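Session log. Operator J.P. requested a structure for one protein chain; no other inputs attached. Running the standard single-chain path with C-alpha cell output.
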Amino acid sequence: MKRWMQHLRIAVWICLAVNAPARADRQRYLTQRDAIAAQAEAWRQNGTAKPILSDDGRILYPYGQTMPKLICTLLRACDIQLEPGERLTGKPVAGDTVRWLMSKQISGAGAQAVTHIIVKPTDVNIETNLIITTDRRTYQIALYSSPNKKRYLHAIGWYYPEDIAQQWDESASLEAERQRAQEHLVAATLSAGSIEKLDFSYAIDGDAKARFTPVRVYNNGEKVYIQLPEAVKTGEAPVLFLLGADGRPQIANYRVKTPTLYEVDKLFERAVLVVGAGGEEQKVTIRWTRNEHAFRWPWSRRF
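Structure written below.
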C-alpha cells in the first residue's frame, strides 16, 4: 500500500510538471514595431531591454545594452545591418584582419538605404572583435567562428530604445505611427543565452514551380518557424504535414501567425507543404539536417 501511494504521488508530480505553464521569459508581439516599443518602454522604466528576434531570423540588439556576439561559420556569410540611412565614417576595424574577411554592401536607396557589413571567417574556433564607426554612433561587436553550423547566425542589427523613449517625450505620435505600420511581422523577445539556440540547418526541396517554397526555416529549440514568400498572399495557402519514419504524412499542430509565417509547436525531422489535390498536388519538403554530415573537400576548410 505504501509503495502504491509513492507511485501515485510521483505520477501526480509528473503530471503537474508537464502541464505547468511555460516560463514567461519570452513574449510575442504582432509586429516587430510592437516588440521594439515594448522593450523601449521597459528601458525607460528600469534601464534594461532585451534582444529581439524578427520573423526573418535577424537578431536585433538594444544599442548600448550589451556587446553583440555574431556567431559565424565556414562557407557562410554573416550580415551586420546598420540603421536605415546610417553611413560609415571609415572602414570597420577588426582585431584579426587575416582570418576574417569583410566587405561592404548597400541595399535600398536614398534616405532608407541600409549599409551591410559582410563578415566571413576563414577558419573555425577563432574569435576577434569589430569596431564600426558611423555618422550616428560607434558599434562594438564580438566575432566568433563556430565549427557547429547549427549555431550560425546569418544576420544581426540593432534597435535604439533611448531614441524611441526620447521620441515619446517629444510627442504623442508613436501610437498613430504604430497603427500605420504593416501588420505582417512577428517578433519575439529572447532571454539571455537563447540566441545561440537558433538553428537554421534545414534543407528545402520540391517542385521548382511552387510559389510557396519557403525562403527560410529555423527553430529556437522548442518550435519551428517557416517563412513563406510574399507570393503566397495572392494564391492558395499550403497545408503542412509532418512525415513519419515511414514517409507517411501526419497531422501537424501549427499556427498561421501571418500569411507568410507558420509556427509549428514542436521540432520535426521532416515535413511537407502541399497545395492542391487529386493527383495535381504541388509539394515542397523540409528536412532538418542537424544529424547530416555533408562531405567536404580538404580545401573547403578555407575560402
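Operator note: Confidence is low (pLDDT under 50) at residues 7-25, 181-186, 294-303.
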